[in-house]
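Trying the structure run again after the queue cleared.
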Amino acid sequence: MFLWWFLSVFSVVSLMRVFLALTLPDEVRRSLSLFQRELAHAGADIKWVERQHLHVTLKFLGEVTDEQRRVVEQRLGEVARGETAFALGLDRVGAFPSLSSPRVVWFGLGEGKARAVRLAERLEQDCVGLGLRKEERPFAAHVTLGRVRSPRGLGALARALQTNDWTPPALWTVTAVTLYQSVLSSGGPTYNVLMEIPLKSP
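Done. Tokens:
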């Protein structure tokens, strides 16, 4: 905790918003993008996540300085190198708070979910050890597809979510944890890759 405070006080203040995530392969992003297009026919007022930004968030770190980011990279690299690469797949479409009253549309993880959850929990523990804020809500392994902005077309969207016949893409191998920078703008966030932390070969 003291180390984190020391770096916060004496570092040059240049804050960036960062988070840790699992990057999706192009073919998985393509499949999810096609599903977004199908749901868009419902005419709901929803902000869809752009195809290149689809990912599985493991930990949102918030705003950190350059020096804090370097400490995070070093410590979290140790965690990632203690985990082996694993197969991961998508399972089903879901929504918060529910399919009948969607506010956030997402896809849950299927095979490999337990490994992703374990990795997220290890990263969470390490971040707390660095003095970062602890996430109060339990980790929910998912890929966010879009966020509802108004009630327009909500009923049609709910029906589309509950009657879809989408088939998940094939499993892929998770080989790294990616540290992203989130740059906010009026047109929505842009995610820049800062570092990829490789997992051990199985």
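The chain has one domain: 16-198. Worth checking whether this holds up in the mutant runs.
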